[in-house]
Amino acid sequence: MYCEDDLLPISALQHLMFCERRCALVHLEQQWEENYFTAQGRIIHEKAHSEQQDRRGDLRIERGMALKSSRLGLIGKADVVEFHLKEGNVWIPFPIEYKRGRKVADDFYRVQLCAQALCLEEMLNLGFALSEGAIFYGKTRRRENVLFDETLRSKTILACEELHALIDSGVTPKAEYCEKCDQCSLNEICLPKIFASKTIEEYLKRMVSEYEETS
């Protein structure tokens, strides 16, 4: 069990799964640089959190619901949690995470959503495992249903352990450049092309090569 002072943001899992260095820059060094895409994402989340509770028959909707897990050492908010009334007068939570883009192959959004489900199970003392939730993609205006199977649960728990290990270490990993770096809002802070190069000569050769490929 983690104490209150050791709780980390659920959103940090997404950063960790995308890039450990990005996660450390944001959550260890408090670095952040907003771009067009992160601004869009922030607005979508603020809108999801600002609307009020809603009740429609057998469906109750909570927005901006506070989440916490002492077992995983997490704290944060769910964009939306739908509560569906089932037999026996039991309300079943169904977490929904809002993202600005479109469906991606990587699991970093799914891990973040699964962590929310694990928090709900612990907070509400459900006594059973939640089966699924959803990610809503603003670009396509569609939901992706996500199954909280054992594979995703294990990956999420491992990610939580890795997140705490990274923060506890206090060390920002070295840069490793790849294509996704070009779309990262922290690119100009991280400078992966420079810091991933062993020497200035190596960096200059890489820049010349990229220039020749695009010219």
Number of strands: 7
> Which residue ranges are poorly predicted, with pLDDT under 50 across at least 5 consecutive positions?
35-43
Structure class:
alpha/beta
Please work out how many helical segments DSSP would assign.
8
Cα Rg = 19 Å
Q: What is the approximate shape?
A: globular
| Broad CATH class of the largest domain | Alpha Beta
Strand fraction equals: 15-25%
CATH topology of the largest domain: Lambda Exonuclease, Chain A
Order of helices and strands: EHHHEEEEHEEHHHH
Biggest beta sheet summary: 7 strands, mixed
Q: How many structural domains?
A: 2
- Give the end-to-end Cα distance, rounded to a whole number of Å: 56 Å
Helix content: 40-55%
Mean pLDDT over the full residue set? 85
CATH architecture annotation of the largest domain: Alpha-Beta Complex
Protein described:
There is one protein chain. This protein is of the alpha/beta class. The chain is built from eight helices and seven strands. Strands 1, 2, 3, 4, 5, 6 and 7 form a seven-stranded mixed beta sheet that branches. Strand 6 (132-137) and strand 7 form a beta hairpin.
